[in-house]
């Protein structure tokens, strides 16, 4: 006789010692390249180790050499704002609308949002190139229209984060309760559902920022400058600063994930205390 799913999962789960070993191996796999990068940035010209390459990043004499980095960083921040706006103003209301009014559209919409995962970036660029040719002729070749393409690339990650929050909350009951008390749809979305979906929305926004800061292929093939393309340019002059900024980008992404995790833990603690009161 076959065992229930939970019992089978418990049977296949590793022991506490096995879990620690698996965690240690995975941590080691991630730590080796990061430590190697850090050691590379600390290499001095005399063969020893120093922080001269880190200090050179902030030396005014190198400002001209490193100017593409700051331009690329500014462009990436603009793209991050535009991509987050797409997630907040387009994706999130659409997902709430489907959950409340059109539940049969959930699977087709999920397929549509996850589709960019199966499309290589080079194929996406081939399809977007004619669109951006028209955009360039009509409204210019500024950096912000590229956020439309990035809005497509972050769809799978943002969708999963927001959908997890929607599945954890009975949005239908909350919306109907608020509507029965006279709340308009704007109030329902912003003051009733928004706070309950805050963790998922925050995770979607932070993941979107992380994806945008690390994107290279689309910007390079469409002849736009962002942080990653600027790093490639500077890497030809000074490979140390490119590795230093890559480490800083990794640290930034780690802090973002830590913020998401701590926020989720704090929210669960607040709910638990309210449940015991």
From TrEMBL:
GO cellular component: plasma membrane
Signal peptide span: none
Domain of life: Bacteria
Gene3D superfamilies (UniProt xref): MetI-like
Membrane disposition: Multi-pass membrane protein
Short name of one Pfam family: BPD_transp_1
Localization in the cell: Cell inner membrane; Cell membrane
Statement: the UniProt record of this protein carries the keyword S-adenosyl-L-methionine: no
Keywords per UniProt: Cell inner membrane, Cell membrane, Membrane, Transmembrane, Transmembrane helix, Transport
BP GO terms, sorted: transmembrane transport
Transmembrane segments: 21-42, 77-100, 112-135, 141-159, 200-220, 240-260
PROSITE patterns assigned to the protein according to its UniProt record, in alphabetical order: ABC_TM1
Domain (ABC transmembrane type-1) ranges: 73-260
InterPro entries: MetI-like, MetI-like_sf
The keyword Transmembrane helix appears for this protein: yes
PANTHER family the record matches: INNER MEMBRANE ABC TRANSPORTER PERMEASE PROTEIN YDCV (PTHR43357:SF4)
Similarity section: Belongs to the binding-protein-dependent transport system permease family.
Identification of the protein by name: Putative spermidine/putrescine transport system permease protein
Protein species of origin: Microterricola gilva
